[in-house]
Design a protein that fits this description.
The protein contains 3 helices and 4 strands, in the order H-E-H-H-E-E-E. By secondary structure, the chain is an alpha+beta fold.
Length: about 150
Amino acid sequence: PRPSAAQVRELRRQLLAAAPPSLGAPEALRIEGPVVRRLRVDLRLAVADLDQAGLLGRVARERLVALLDTGTGGADEDGWALGDAPSEGDVALALVDTPHLESIEGVTLREIASDGAERPWPEALKPNELAMLAEDGVRIQYETVEVVA
């Protein structure tokens, strides 16, 4: 999520070409990347047969990664935006129609600090903050359900 030096130079060039001359003064225009907030999603998913848990887990992880993609994520698939805080509802919506998913028994969102400490995920983010999955960003616990024929 951090812009490269070349990206910063090009963006600065484009902005200054369209901006009033006062922005050309030193330190008048500052371009920097977002503040990244690392997210872990703990899921409790119900599955009819544990033999299907592997596929369910793989698809669930892929969908959550796709949800938070800055280019194509979000409900409208136009990118997960700066300042948007994912919610349990966003996670549930991303998992709709996941193969072999009987139900979502629980969703817990946690922030993972740079020192590895966990804390509750905030309800809101600042406009310059970006939600991204942590290294171990999706943890899944499975429960089997009794299927009555």
